[in-house]
Amino acid sequence: MMVILLAGSCSSGKDVAYFQNIDSISLAGSNGLYDAKIMPKDMLTITVNTLTPEAALPFNLAVSSNVGSTGQLNQGGGNLQGYLVNNDGDINFPVIGKIHVAGMTKDQCQDLIASKISPYLAKTERPIVTVRMSSYHVTVIGEVSSPKVVPVTTEKMSVLEAIADAGDLTIYGKRNNVILIRESATGQKEYHRLNLNDARLINSPYYYLQQNDILYVEPNKVKAKNAGLGQSTTIWFSFVGIVTSIASLLVNVLRD
User: Binning pLDDT at 50, 70 and 90, where does residue 206 land?
Assistant: First the structure.
């Protein structure tokens, strides 16, 4: 049994290291900063500011409101309501109405909303629009130390960061065949196989994860063999224990 385990360990040892060819490839393809794209079901917080605060009020949905002593409705300055991106990729914005935002970065969304607000303002007013995406999550399962749902609060998470948050791959995880399951903006499911042994992963369009991605780390052959051996060993020891108990009982009966 020990010989089988050692043989399996030796054969898989060369596959443990990440980015084995990093000295021989160019990482020029990774040039550029990553921006998350807005997807259906995202929750956005959008604030509009202008030189004259009153001019921005119609474009901000305040959560809290109260009636003053004079009977006038006062809008509170608390947290702003979120805008849920619907299945068509649209939000319903005050005054403007429906705006298609799916597939855009935050900056693109900000510029679009500002351009639609400007005609409603005086020429001296330049709207400053701030868009924030609420945190989303990715899921890491399989041969990692701590399978989990990983919250993403920075709007950017790489494959390596998600795996690190899950405690890294165990020694039994396949580094060269990590499966990424992704849902597109239209709801279409797709999968991609990622090779952590290959440094070209850094140049891959799948290096950064998007909303609701799932990473599955497959077990290697050694884990499969160990699982089979463990089951067989348990049955064997159970059988030996029963035989030993019966033999001991017979010896005691014959002595009496």
Answer: very high
